[in-house]
Amino acid sequence: MNLEKQKENFKNHRAIFKDLGNIKILDFKKPNRLEMLFTLEKRKKVPIKGVDLGNVLESIHDEMYEEVGELAYDWTIEYPNHDKKKYLEYQEKLKQLVMDYLKEIGMEPGFFSGH
Is the torsion defined by CA of 52, 53, 58, 63 positive or negative? Predict the structure, then answer.
């Protein structure tokens, strides 16, 4: 919930806005006109998933095979068995790259979970 937007929406209303943490109250000082807006206490942003270095490397291998045929057959990218620590490092870098791109183009996910 964007509290600044809610405040803007109600700026011309004669109401009292109270922020009690997880509970937001709009008191319009009229009978039966008290609104309470609840937020989840344990909300957390859902991390992006589906970015997989293994899939990218496999796709690269397949494209090379399509391009040069049998010459690429023996070109095997050993992941993550070759160096698991290095693989996980670059897996995280790839994920961060995708997140940075999404943020830059204004498409960063804004999903939250109460779990």
Answer: positive
Please list the pLDDT of the chain residue by residue as tens digits (115 residues). 577 777 776 566 566 677 766 666 666 665 555 555 555 455 667 778 889 998 999 899 899 999 998 888 888 776 667 788 898 999 999 999 999 999 999 888 777 665 5
- Say which residues have a Cβ less than 8 Å from residue 68's Cβ, sequence separation at least 6: none
Biggest CA pair distance of the chain: 80
Q: How far is CA 65 from CA 30, 54, 60, 74, 79, in A?
A: 73, 16, 9, 10, 18
Distance separating alpha carbons of residues 25 and 18, to the nearest angstrom: 5
Helix/strand/coil for 106: coil
Structure-token pair, residue 114: 């109460």
Residue pair 1/39 in contact (Cβ under 8 Å)? The answer is yes
Which ranges of the chain would DSSP assign to H, the alpha helix? 3-9, 53-68, 84-104
